[in-house]
Amino acid sequence: MSKNVKNGEMDNLMDAFSTLKSREEAYAFLEDLCTVKELESLSQRLEVARLLREKITYQDIASQTGASTTTVSRVNRALNYGSDGYDMVLDRLDADK
User: Fold this and answer.
1) Nearest to 68 by CA among 51, 44, 92, 86
2) At what angle do helices 69-81 and 58-65 cross, to 10 degrees?
3) pLDDT tens digits, 10-68
4) At 2, phi and psi to the nearest 5?
5) pLDDT score of 4
6) Distances (CA, A) of 55 to 15, 23, 50, 62
7) For a surface tag, which of 8, 75, 93, 94 has the fewest beta carbons within 10 Å of its beta carbon?
8) Pair 86, 46: CB distance under 8 Å
9) pLDDT tens-digit series, residues 62-92
10) 73: number of CA atoms within 13 Å, CB side?
C-alpha cells in the first residue's frame, strides 16, 4: 500500500476488517462504513479483476459489468503492477470453491 495511505487511521481500519468473523458481520460493517455506490464500485472492481484474469477483453468486461474501460484499465494496472492484493484474494476465493 502506498506510504501516503499507511497511517494510524488506516491501521485501525485494517484491524477492524481483521475482526470480522462472517459474511453477515462484513455486510453490517460495510453497510455502515460505505455508501451503496462505494460498495457497488468495490464489488465491480473485484469482478473486473476476476474477468481480466480469465483474459476477457476490456470491451466485453465493460459490457458485462457496466464498468468503464478506464476502470477496467485501472484494475488491470493494479493486477500487473500493484501489491498483488487482487490475486491473493481471488486465489483464495477460487481455493474455497
Assistant:
1) 44
2) 120
3) 999 999 999 999 999 999 999 999 999 999 999 999 999 999 999 999 999 999 999 99
4) -55, 140
5) 76
6) 34, 29, 9, 13
7) 8
8) yes
9) 999 999 999 999 999 999 999 999 999 999 9
10) 3
Instruction: Kindly report the pTM of this predicted structure.
Output: 0.90
Contact 65, 48 (CB under 8 A): yes
DSSP 82: S
C-alpha grid cell, residue 21: 468473523
So what's the pLDDT on residue 40?
97
C-beta of residue 72 within 8 angstroms of C-beta of residue 58: yes
**Cβ atoms of 30 and 20 closer than 8 Å:** no
DSSP 78: H
The length of the chain in residues reads 97
